[in-house]
Amino acid sequence: MKKILLIFYPEWIKIVNYRTFWILCGLYAATLVLLLFSLQGILDNITVNVNNKSPLPIPSFPVYAFPGVWQNLTYIAGFLKMFPAFLVIILITNEFTFRTLKQQVITGTSRLEFMTAKITLILALSVAVAFLVAITGLLAGLMQNSQDFKLILSPKLLFIAAHALELMTYMMFAAFLAVLLKRAGITVIVFLLYSIILERILSFKLPDNIGRFLPLEAAGNLVPLPNSSLMKLFGVSFSEFTSWQDTAICFGWIVVFILAIYRILLKRDL
Fold first, then answer.
1. pLDDT at residue 116 above 60?
2. What does pTM read for this prediction?
3. N or C: which end of the chain has fewer CB within 10 A?
4. For residues 210, 216, 222 and 226, what is the CA-based torsion angle, rounded to 10 degrees?
5. Domain boundaries, the chain
6. What's the confidence (pLDDT) of residue 229?
């Protein structure tokens, strides 16, 4: 652990003075917290509007009730997971653009140490965002009336860890593309094309038992769509727990991305 901290220290020095990084982190955190705190009001407005036009009454959905709040908020937070991935792309491609990676290698930093520092950064970002979602969910839940606070500590709290793994899978994929392509613009374009278009096409074309092994598909499956009163009304039910198969697939892809990054760094002339 001490060695990892020593390796990460130069990375921290670079980040702490990088104003763009902190501005983007602040905007992302503010957007995430605002969205999560506004979620109940948004859903209530939709429910009222639908009930005014539909003969079939739509029941309200208590977003912040324990223990469902952990799944509800991590599911919604998953829609913003591309933004931390963009941060990783910017930080890694800057190393190639400004030749800082080459300078580090010349001054004695090994390529393994460079990669370890980036992985540690990705892990720290994943944990920090998951912690922010957890604190938001806890505060939002505590502010509700008629809560059973004994339900705060429930198995659904594991969705916070699942969200951290979801973020790490996305960011490791982004890191792999950044090391492979070296330029921020082209990396962001490829990342968006793959995540929004290509993998969705592959997931649609492939059988379900094969499509679930795609990296971003597996990451997205870690936090299933929460059950609601409306879904139960129509007899539809989704999983209330993270699948161990999807967890294993994500860990497997993280290892693949790490090995691929290290191989590229070893073979490439910096």
1. yes
2. 0.93
3. N
4. -100
5. 2-267
6. 60
